[in-house]
Amino acid sequence: MTNRFCGLLAMLLMTTPALAVTDPAVTSAQAAQQADINTQVTLHGYLIKTLGDQHYLFRDPSGELQVEIDNALWRDINVKGDTPLTLKGKVANTRFGPEVEIDSLQLAG
């Protein structure tokens, strides 16, 4: 019985395609607002307003979105409202609506 089960399991594993979970490419504020929680996001745009406590208002051609940037990520980067940035992170849900928790930020160039 055990050999039969192992044979059946091996056959199923060989004929079943691998399941991979991939997030769609989310690259705009508008798409991020509609994306599922934990979806990976890469944004290109500007921080236009400080909202306090590591929260900022981000803008790109598609619209605006709240982002959270940990103080440790700044690494002496000075940003003004017209400084283009690339932000990478994941979508989160807050009591104020969707936001992106930023994992990395860099000057776009």
Automatic annotation (TrEMBL):
Gene3D superfamilies: Bacterial OB-fold (2.40.50.200). It holds the Pfam family BOF. Transmembrane segments: none annotated. Keywords: Signal. It comes from the Bacteria. Residues 1-20 form the signal peptide. This is NirD/YgiW/YdeI family stress tolerance protein. It comes from Shewanella yunxiaonensis.
